[in-house]
Amino acid sequence: MSQYKETVEQFANLIGQQAGTWDAISPEYAARMAVQNRFRTGLDIARYTADIMRQDMAEYDADSSQYTQSLGCWHGFVGQQKLIAIKKHHGTTNKRYLYLSGWMIAALRSEFGPLPDQSMHEKTSVPALIEELYTFLRQADARELGHLFHELDAARATGDAAAEQAAQDKIDNYETHVVPIVADIDAGFGNEEATYLLAKKMIEAGACAIQIENQVSDAKQCGHQDGKVTVPHEDFLAKINAVRYAFLELGVPNGVIVARTDSLGAGLTQKIPVSTQAGDLASKYNAFLEVEPVMSADDVNEGDVILKQNGALVRPVRLPNGLYRFKAGTGEARCVLDCITSLQNGADLLWIETEKPHVGQIGGMVNEIRKVIPNAKLVYNNSPSFNWTLNFRQQVFDAWSAEGKDLSAYDRNGLMSVDYDNSELAVEADRWIQSFQADASREAGIFHHLITLPTYHTAALSTDILAQGYFGEEGMLAYVRGVQRQEIRRGIACVKHQDMAGSNMGDDHKEYFSGEAALKASGKDNTMNQFS
């Protein structure tokens, strides 16, 4: 017996035990509503998606071509449409996730209005967006299953046994739109207790993977801005522990922690950790500090901090704001130490924030990490902050230069020019961009590729195109030709926006509740019928 039929039978038995008081309740309708709401709570989602991520991680370890991907979504509707599109075009959501970007929450979801990515937005907006995303994904399930139930009813009405079985199989083998979310907790929005409390709310909303970075919480900057300040490893590990405790407390032992290091672009630290013996973690961190030799008391100013390193006294270089500076050129080494330390202390995945998308640079650091942690793997930001076109054209230019190829037709600094768009170099660069994710997953240990804020840009771009035409000579044709006709031609379900918003599901429920007395919206005068 199919799972759907078993659910119908269970409700029939339950209703039969109520001495006739529930006779108005249809076992099949109750079963449909239950099937349409597979995930009762956010914790159900977190447990389900954590298991998916763990399986995907194991499959990637066995075969690096099995990497995963996601796009950042700033609204539940955007996330919903992304997953609907993935199922439509690719047939499955396998290896596809959602990314929740702190940058986009700051820019688009704060009650303060648009903010920079500096952890100034309300921390509660993070779990609120997770809950919103999963509300829309569950609604996508309910809508699609509702259509399948109508297929089942139509087949039964015509007595077509084959069509009925086909519809039944679709229901029983239905693939949910609910997928893992990698959720950005920034630097934890405070101390380790604050991190734990927010992590709990995020997990309760459905997050199975939490990304946390090693910046100072109250001085947090976007990974692609200047002025980043990192914390000592001990402080960061305390926050990793806080997130793990939150997962364990809530019964999500497979929860995934992504440890992000911003050390590549961070030249400052706020705190000098206490070292108790040579070679301990604190001394390794302090060894990266820019220091000046201290030969006598005359070399020391009032209030200076003095360290003993390798048997000599040194003074860390301190800025007027009290921050300490790292030695130039130590970023990659600090990233490697950050990553090894995080994996050795409870993190599951790594995130190295880089200043450019370069497989060689990323792979060089991962190779060093893997000398200690052989299965180390990354979540990587395919960031819109990179000028991908210019970066890859310059990478091809440099590669060709090393090969001795004649490059007299190209100006390396001007390669962004439209004049080069159809050149041999530009075509090759586009091939490199196209294969970047596969190449980096094979050569640089990247398990998950994401774009942090793509839908921020797509919303701006599509609005610009529509506004140009609609408020210009095209008028209504700009919408019809550029939007609605494209929706119809591409089979985008949202062209029937009433159905997407839940009108048909509401009609079904009215019929369940009121029978023939139901006042339904989907009759012959509903203009949505023009899109049948």
UniProtKB/TrEMBL annotation:
Q: Which cofactor does it need?
A: Mg(2+)
Q: Which UniProt keywords apply?
A: Lyase, Magnesium, Metal-binding
Residues given in the record as Mg(2+) binding sites: D184
| GO BP, one annotated term | carboxylic acid metabolic process
Q: SUPFAM superfamilies given for it?
A: Phosphoenolpyruvate/pyruvate domain
Coiled-coil ranges from the UniProt annotation = none
Task: Give yes or no: UniProt keyword Ribosomal protein.
Answer: no
> Would the keyword Magnesium turn up in this protein's UniProt record?
yes
The note on cofactor binding and number reads: Can also use Mn(2+) ion.
The protein in question is named Isocitrate lyase
The scientific name of the source species is Aequoribacter fuscus
